[in-house]
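For the sake of clarity, the format in which proteins appear in this thesis is described at this point. Each number in the token line that follows is a code from a learned vocabulary of backbone shapes. One such record is shown here in full, so that the layout can be seen directly:
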Amino acid sequence: MIIPTRRTHPVITILRIATQSIILLFAGLLALWAILAQLLAIIPSQWLVPVLRFGSAQTVILTISIIRDGMGVYGVIYTFVPLVLLLLLLWWFRRKPRWLKVLVTLCAAAFVVSLITYISLVVTVAREGGGVHAFAPATMQMQQWGKPDQTLTFGKPEGTPLKADLYMPSKASASATPDGKIPVVVRVHGGGFTSGDKAPTPYNRFLADHGYAVLDVQYRLANPQQHTWQTEVGDVGCALTWLNTKGADNYPLDLSRVGIFGDSAGGNLAINAAYMSNNSTLQPTCGSSSELPHIKAVTALYPVVNMVVAQQQSAIGYTVGQSYIGGTPAQYPERYEFTAPMTHVSKQAPPTLIIQGGRDHLVLPRPVQEFATQIAEKGIVTRYIELPFLDHQAGDGLSTITVGTLAQQQFLLSWMDQYVK
């Protein structure tokens, strides 16, 4: 007797195949992103220099890493999702294709790496005094950072109005001197010397809420026709002279307690402005050098400290060098020397805090580490903090509150409290 086999209805077969295909496509794309993101977290940035010399490749690498960092703990969860889907497909398929097994293995490895790197970051931040932040961001919502209290014009070098946002503390008495005056922190934005602007950040209102007046300043940007290698730091100096000549007249500011900080290109300008202001070599584009305040402390987040290396190792660095400097180090060695903070180091240099992502693919960590070592050897009070496995912006790229953001807030505040307040 022959028993008839049960045949699956063709429609059900089609639906099953379609469902499997959709899940596979979705899981495969997620897995590919997760694998690439975690590879970029563990491969030293210096190893990728041959790739970083290609503009499109560097842009893709930075985009993947900055998104990963901005996701924070959600990046670990995200990496787990494709692994679960791929395991489901592996169980579902009657025949277990080898390529699927390989993909599952790679995705599982990416999940383990994401977990290890995230825990390492949390532990490092806690050990360095940045607080314990086990689950950040709390949500993936983009933050609207606090707005300034006032926007003012601090100078018009060569007829170009330069503006600054002023953030005042809500409770000035918390850190005021007996005469009621408030310490000041000047913020210098990044943007590769060619873009960017003053804008709310995770740090401006944060510092104001902790008793500081924050002056977030503009400077004239470079372009292929206008090379601002000398005037950008001079424009920051213009803002500093405004503080001494007009700022204290209009606001209860304590000009004996001034700090400065910046990120990326702004970190370079912040260090140079601080060092040059204190050793009387800064030529402000408005006011005079005699009107510059003494800088008590400087903090630089992932700063450009060696434009020669940046121009040689990075496609973006090369492009910036053409606009900001006007050419190559061979063409303009004196210009590149001027932009290097080591050129302006002196005994008057203020305490310097440098924070860097350990896998920065825009401002590579090695030159920054070497700079921190060199200034420390010259007797400058120095602290270098590396946030492991993070790329440029160290978690700030998506405007979420990540471990990197919370750590940089705390490190910046502690440094200013120790040397400015």
